[in-house]
Specification:
It comes from Mesorhizobium kowhaii. Pfam families: Lipoprotein_15. The protein is an alpha+beta fold. It is built from 2 helices and 7 strands. The protein has one domain. The chain is globular and about 35 Å long.
């Protein structure tokens, strides 16, 4: 029984890690390594957010969709999960919630970088 329990725990941990790995990936745009969602769409941070807290709701979240985290998603290195006031969860990089931008139409677009001086591409270190 102990072997089954240990095996099940390992399977659950690897499944949670795979949710994290499937949520984002690294890409190179114009010689700069950035993070994108699983579809290759650029991820951004918002200066008005706080570490571990999003301040982007309503119209903001319509234009800047949060990178949703699955229920049960777990932190992975510099990636963490942030609770939203609507009960959903989203991913954060280095504590800062991350978003895509509705005006980015294809993988590699970075049209949201610098919008209103408060939106920035998430660069991979």
């Amino acid at each position: 029984m102990k072997t089954i329990t240990v095996g099940l725990a390992a399977l659950l941990l690897s499944t949670a890690a795979s949710f994290a790995a499937d949520a984002w990936k690294e890409a190179e745009v114009g010689g700069t390594k950035i993070y994108t969602d699983a579809n290759g769409m650029t991820l951004y941070t918002y200066d008005k957010d706080e570490k571990g807290k999003t301040n982007c709701y309503d119209k903001c979240a319509t234009n800047w969709p949060p990178l949703k985290a699955e229920a049960g998603a777990k932190a992975d290195d510099e990636w963490s999960v942030v609770d939203r006031t609507d009960g959903t969860k989203m991913w954060a990089y280095d504590g800062k919630p991350v978003y895509t931008f509705v005006k980015d139409k294809k993988a590699g677009d970075i049209s949201g970088d610098g919008v209103a001086g408060v939106w920035h591409v998430v660069k991979a270190d």
